[in-house]
Write a structure and sequence with these properties.
Number of strands: 10
Strand order of the largest sheet: 1-4-3-2-5-8-7-9
Shape: globular
Length: 364
């Protein structure tokens, strides 16, 4: 009898343990699971950071800058970053977007150079997001690099700011970047750009190199889809290599979806190509932001420095410029190119020696 009572007690204890285990499992299943970071997961996710993992900068006390770093041009990116951080006392945070094969190289360049004190996060971009949106084109393959399209996907980056600055890697900043960040955007505008007709000091040089400054130079007006836009072909264009973006407004207007729509349209109809003045990344921006952007102070985007190996701006004018852009095929880390001294003063040598300047051999 005593033995039977002891067996019953053991069975009751075992039953209670099973009930507890079932309740525990049920609670775990009902608890909220962490969500994916955001849609950026489909593009790649974070690749590394100058801060501790998963720690974001104070969104209310930072100037966030998005800039890309390709393996082939990583020294250009570092020169841009150096020029920004050297000319401001503001709290700047760099979001450096790259492809998987350049994540380690980018981190090493920063950590083993004078840039090791900057605040940054490395983000990896997955080029598969461009499938069915970009055609191969041999006229200027550099303009088809996947990182050229990162600017279309700003709200999907793993960043948490209401406003960001986007910079191409071939720029040098000579002013305080905080002044650019603080520009007042007009209501309903998702971005601020500098137009191609806004600076009289540049007109003579632009004409001398045959640079296009109107929509006609970027869109094929022989195509009905382009004519249906109702945009005057002589209207001034803008350059999307430098801009300030209101991320909330960008999301509200679904700018990324609009840009993708025109990429897909071009994939089917070929309404623009990289043979035209701005390649394939500029035309969608021109279409989507037509008459819907705030104008930057033109001194914050003095461009076309890379369109000719010998056409030069006056040195006095360039000293006044707040940002210089070597857009075009003649880059200042290569040769020939113009105004090399203004770029080279910010160059940070590559600690791995994979990136080096191309310069003419000195005469013996």
């Amino acid at each position: 009898m005593a033995l039977l009572r002891k067996v019953n007690q053991i069975l009751v204890v075992l039953l209670l343990l099973m009930v507890c285990l079932l309740l525990h499992s049920s609670l775990l299943g009902a608890s909220p699971r962490p969500k994916p970071a955001d849609d950026w997961k489909s593009l790649g996710g974070a690749g590394g950071s100058g801060l501790s993992a998963a720690r974001d900068p104070d969104v209310d006390d930072v100037v966030p800058i998005v800039i890309c770093a390709s393996e082939e041009r990583i020294g250009a990116t570092m020169a841009s970053i150096n020029s920004v951080s050297s000319n401001t006392h503001s709290n700047v945070f760099f979001y450096i977007v790259t492809l998987r094969d350049a994540v380690k190289l980018t981190r090493k360049y920063i950590m083993k150079s004078k840039l090791k004190s900057i605040k940054y996060k490395i983000l990896e971009f997955n080029p598969m997001v461009l499938k069915g949106k970009v055609k191969p084109d041999s006229s200027r393959p550099d303009l088809l690099h996947p990182l050229n399209f990162v600017r279309f996907y700003l709200p999907l980056l793993d960043i948490h700011h209401k406003r960001v600055i986007y910079l191409d890697d071939d720029v040098i900043v000579q002013g305080d970047i905080k002044d650019l960040f603080d520009i007042k955007l007009k209501p309903g505008h998702a971005a601020a750009f500098s137009t191609d007709c806004d600076l009289p000091s540049t007109h003579d040089m632009v004409r001398s190199i045959g640079m296009q400054t109107t929509y006609m130079g970027f869109l094929d007006y022989r195509k009905q889809e382009v004519r249906d836009l109702g945009i005057n072909p002589r209207e001034c264009s803008f350059n999307p290599g430098v801009f300030v973006a209101d991320i909330s407004e960008w999301k509200k207007q679904k700018i990324t979806k609009q840009l993708e729509k025109w990429m897909e349209e071009n994939f089917r109809q070929n309404i623009y190509s990289s043979a035209m003045a701005g390649g394939v990344a500029t035309p969608p921006m021109l279409i989507v932001f037509h008459d819907k952007y705030t104008t930057l102070d033109p001194l914050w985007h003095v461009r076309h420095l890379g369109w000719s190996p010998d056409a030069r701006y006056a040195e006095s004018f360039l000293q006044e410029a707040l940002l210089l852009h070597w857009n075009g095929p003649f880059k200042p880390w290569s040769y020939p190119a113009v105004h090399l001294d203004l770029w080279e003063r910010w160059f940070v040598p590559d600690p791995s020696r994979r990136f080096s300047l191309v310069r003419p051999k000195s005469e013996s």
